[in-house]
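Try this one yourself first.
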């Protein structure tokens, strides 16, 4: 028992020591999007590809996916009208907007609401029934798309499905403006071929988008994280136009914030330290890590270090071809094949990293080891809002997956303390090492606290009060920092 207590105390002491790296140089950034028009013209804004991931229609209701997709497609409208500032609606998720106390005397808005409610009813009916009735198929294009789901189509064994839902060169919205491209992709799966979970899906999206659109910017987004601020892309452009960091800038990571938890958040599901406090410390060192969603990437960062380009195995985007052309779709299906990555560098030196359950953490860490930099953006108004685990079981399951994945990164080829120290410096390596030892074992029927009659009790009381006192101070300061932060960077 004495040995167990010693080991426990050593691990806790190590955790405390490594956590100090987050407190060495925290910074808070601020952007000034209104200054963008003095730096670049609207027609010079870079194109953006959005990767919206979803896997299970029962755990991730399709209407949540639809609302997130619509809120992100509204970026196009915001950028189109940026200079004139005609649009002042902040809530771009239809579900959130129509659920709010909005006031509209416009018949146009009410007509949109009726269409939305009608669509919602149809989608939920299809989910409940488990199939799409003929009454909901209105044209030949839809029939052709849904015909790809045959009786032999299963979650673990099915062909590639790529369907162009919206074409920016043809489809228009009610105001007459062209809609952005909207493409549905379901990668091929086979029981005889590995498919590295979310990282594998993101790499398929990376390749297919390179064939069909090839935008220099990429937003990776979870299906339950809707856009809450239409000015988010403009904040991203502030950093992309900063000459002091743009040559090594791989990604801009926005804070992951939530609308689900109650006022007290009894399970600490918001993970404020993980998603809002610690990132400011990482940003002051060598840059924030990637957390899997709410992140804008430079496409170039996925193909080698800042000064070393890894050759691509796929041809360049066919700019002269129509997005629905046979050449486009044929090549897109080819790069989505489940055997395409065999004997290639995908997952190791190219794209999102394989080898860990936390592909986001591993990918961000690998990019930083290669010399790239990430910045943390945490505006006063949340850029994105999503759902949190609402039960203790869901929270523990999520934490278990994170803990296993973090340990996998520690013992990967990019060992956090060795490769991290060499590539990013000791403080940054200690920050990553801190996350690696996040999981702590619980000893069954072994008391790890001294009895009240023992003198060691006073030491444990001191450590207990000190640890929670520090937590309280940091959370109080975090609220203050939102009004009067430290270093300020952006379009100034």
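Now uncover the answer:
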């Amino acid at each position: 028992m004495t040995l167990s207590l010693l080991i426990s105390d050593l691990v806790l002491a190590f955790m405390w020591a490594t956590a100090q790296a987050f407190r060495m140089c925290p910074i808070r950034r601020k952007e000034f999007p209104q200054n963008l028009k003095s730096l670049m013209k609207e027609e010079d804004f870079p194109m953006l590809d959005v990767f919206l991931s979803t896997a299970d229609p029962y755990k991730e209701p399709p209407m949540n996916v639809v609302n997130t997709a619509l809120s992100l497609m509204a970026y196009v409208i915001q950028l189109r009208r940026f200079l004139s500032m005609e649009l002042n609606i902040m809530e771009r998720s239809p579900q959130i907007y129509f659920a709010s106390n909005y006031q509209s005397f416009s018949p146009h808005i009410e007509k949109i609401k009726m269409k939305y409610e009608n669509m919602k009813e149809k989608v939920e009916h299809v989910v409940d029934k488990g199939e799409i009735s003929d009454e909901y198929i209105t044209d030949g294009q839809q029939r052709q798309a849904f015909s790809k789901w045959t009786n032999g189509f299963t979650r673990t064994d099915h062909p590639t499905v790529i369907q162009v839902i919206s074409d920016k060169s043809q489809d228009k919205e009610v105001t007459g403006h062209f809609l952005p491209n909207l493409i549905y992709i379901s990668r091929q799966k086979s029981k005889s071929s590995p498919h590295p979970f979310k990282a594998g899906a993101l790499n398929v999206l990376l390749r297919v988008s390179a064939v069909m659109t090839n935008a220099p910017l990429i937003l990776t987004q979870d299906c339950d994280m809707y856009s809450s601020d239409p000015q988010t892309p403009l904040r991203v452009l502030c950093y992309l136009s900063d000459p002091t960091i743009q040559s090594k800038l791989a990604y801009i990571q926005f804070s992951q914030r939530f609308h689900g938890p109650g006022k007290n958040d009894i399970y600490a599901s918001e993970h404020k330290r993980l998603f809002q406090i610690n990132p400011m410390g990482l940003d002051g060192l060598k840059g924030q890590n990637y957390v899997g969603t709410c992140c804008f990437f430079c496409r170039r960062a996925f193909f080698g270090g800042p000064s070393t380009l890894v050759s691509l195995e796929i041809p360049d985007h066919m700019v002269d071809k129509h997005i629905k052309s046979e050449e486009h779709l044929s090549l897109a299906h080819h790069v989505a094949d489940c055997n395409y990555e065999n004997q290639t560098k995908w997952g190791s030196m190219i794209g999102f990293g394989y080898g860990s359950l936390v592909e986001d953490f591993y990918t961000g860490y690998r990019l930083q080891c290669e010399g790239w930099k990430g910045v943390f953006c945490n505006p006063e108004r949340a850029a994105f809002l999503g759902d949190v685990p609402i039960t203790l079981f869901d929270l523990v399951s999520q934490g278990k997956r994170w803990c296993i994945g973090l340990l996998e990164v520690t013992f990967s080829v990019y060992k956090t303390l060795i490769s991290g120290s060499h590539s990013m410096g000791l403080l940054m390596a200690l920050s990553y090492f801190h996350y690696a030892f996040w999981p702590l074992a619980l000893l069954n029927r072994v008391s790890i606290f001294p009895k009240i009659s023992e003198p060691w009790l006073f030491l444990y009381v001191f450590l207990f009060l000190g640890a929670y006192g520090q937590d309280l101070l940091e959370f109080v300061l975090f609220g203050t920092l939102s009004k009067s932060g430290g270093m300020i960077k952006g379009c100034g």
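Discussion: The beta strands are 48-53, 161-166, 182-186, 217-222, 226-227, 249-254, 257-258, 295-298, 373-377, 384-386. The mean pLDDT is 82.
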